[in-house]
Amino acid sequence: MARGGEPTLITSVQRALRLLEAVSEQPAGTTAKHLSRRTGIALPTTYHLLRTLVHEGYLEKLDDGAFIIGEQVAGLHSAAQGQGLRSRIRSVMTELRDDLNAAVYLARYDDGEVVVTDIVDSPRTPRVDTWADFKEAAHATAIGKCLLSGLSRAERADHFDRYPPADLTPRTITRIRDLIDGPEHPVVTDSEEYSLGTACMAAPVLGTGSPMTLAISFPARKLTGTGAFVPPLCAAAGEISRTLALSGDFPTAG
């Protein structure tokens, strides 16, 4: 840190960023001399920074000597969009956690598997102890049941062929016919089927390329009073659905 608490800044990095900004303002590209005049950076320094940016893929030099934005910048832009989308969705989940005093989960059915993509919890609202892999326990969780309800009966049958339902607790439902028929209501609840003492509730997130769900977990003793949980859970799932409809499908790790 510099004196007075001001951060120590790297001048060469600042100059490189100014050059990137100046290039982005010229759709057809621009020359080193123009960039030097536009940014006030000395021409020799401009050439040095441009060569570095071209080497790293952040700029591309055309045959006529003009510079344009490179593919690395496009990659950063795409990553920023994905991170921004995740941040907006996570804020909805955080608000729901605080509103219902419950851990919140976002999950999707991806290539035949149950995948939990995000969890928002806290010391007061801890996540469920995942002692059994959710991929193998779709039959025993509201998350899994909600995701499977978005599939056809044949697809659900295929899932249970690959993952035969097992007794995880004395309350686990394992009858194949009941599981394939699936829940009749959009909001799915499990009570101590996955973990004794824990209940879970899940609502579908609509408009995605594959089934997705927003879910909450909480102590099973609260289950009798969860009627008030349904409207906020459905509202949050609806908000995430609208966010994804505007932004495209949820980004997945590459």
From TrEMBL:
One of its GO terms (biological process) is glycerol metabolic process. InterPro entries: GAF-like_dom_sf (IPR029016), HTH_MetabolicPath_Reg (IPR050707), Tscrpt_reg_IclR_C (IPR014757), Tscrpt_reg_IclR_N (IPR005471), WH-like_DNA-bd_sf (IPR036388), WH_DNA-bd_sf (IPR036390). May be an activator protein for the gylABX operon. This is Glycerol operon regulatory protein. It comes from Saccharopolyspora hirsuta. Residues 10-71 form the HTH iclR-type domain. Transmembrane segments: none annotated. GO terms for molecular function: DNA binding; DNA-binding transcription factor activity. It holds the Pfam family IclR_C. Residues 72-246 form the IclR-ED domain. Keywords: DNA-binding, Glycerol metabolism, Transcription, Transcription regulation. The keyword Transferase does not apply. It comes from the Bacteria.
